[in-house]
Design goal:
It is built from four helices and seven strands, in the order E-H-H-E-E-E-H-E-H-E-E. The protein has a domain of 124 residues: Aminopeptidase, CATH 3.40.630. The two termini are 29 Å apart. The relative contact order is 0.18. By secondary structure, it is of the alpha+beta class. It is globular, with a radius of gyration of 16 Å. A hairpin with a 2-residue loop joins strand 2 and strand 3. A seven-stranded mixed sheet has the order 1-2-3-4-5-7-6. About 6% of the residues have low confidence. The longest helix is centred in the middle third of the chain and has 15 residues.
């Protein structure tokens, strides 16, 4: 899969292959997700989650739903191992918002700050643009400066601050809302490809 280029990519990241995910990748994705939700503060559960910990079948179901809606679901692989993944979901469920998506990126704990995000994010942008989406959003923890810098390097700008929206590990946290246009953005009407995007 080709990617957009922006900024410098560490030498270690040049060994990475970004590709569409498969069901065989699910155990590795679940391990990455579980670590970050259980120990990190970057993901505050902005998307609805099950009351019990996620299982393989939960991720498989979500992945299939995304692919059915032409939403990309990607993994980053190094030496045959999944070291990160990224995906997009509808920004809102109502049909009027069907051309807007929000995304998430997760990187394996021992691979943080090695350029994986700089490989996954542009690939995700490219895939969403190719699918006919026009706007892309990200929720970024207000204290996560590296993530803010990453998004800004690929054309995202800050459009809002959600104060005290998250509570995790005994403290309140703020989230930045960041946005970038895809393709022509709002400068022209959507093309016919967009008719397959569903908001439900």
């Amino acid at each position: 899969m080709s990617t957009l280029a922006s900024g410098q990519v560490p030498d270690r990241a040049r060994e990475i292959v970004v590709r569409p995910s498969t069901e065989n990748d699910v155990p590795a994705m679940l391990a990455i997700y579980t670590h970050h939700v259980g120990r990190g503060v970057g993901d505050l559960g902005l998307e609805p989650t099950a009351p019990e910990p996620l299982q393989d079948d939960d991720i498989k179901r979500r992945r299939k739903n995304m692919l059915r809606r032409r939403l990309p679901h990607l993994v980053a692989e190094r030496s045959g191992e999944v070291v990160g993944y990224a995906y997009a979901v509808p920004f809102r469920k109502r049909p009027a918002y069907r051309y807007a998506v929000k995304h998430s990126i997760y990187v394996r704990q021992d691979q943080l700050h090695s350029g994986i995000g700089r490989m996954l994010l542009p690939a995700l942008i490219e895939a969403c643009t190719g699918a006919g989406f026009r706007q892309m959003f990200a929720y970024v923890d207000a204290e996560n400066v590296p993530s803010q810098n990453l998004h800004e390097a690929f054309g995202f700008r800050r459009v809002g601050l959600l104060e005290g929206v998250g509570y995790k590990f005994g403290r309140w946290t703020d989230s930045l809302l960041m946005q970038r246009a895809l393709g022509p953005g709002a400068a022209e009407p959507p093309d016919a490809r967009g008719t397959s995007h569903t908001g439900v």
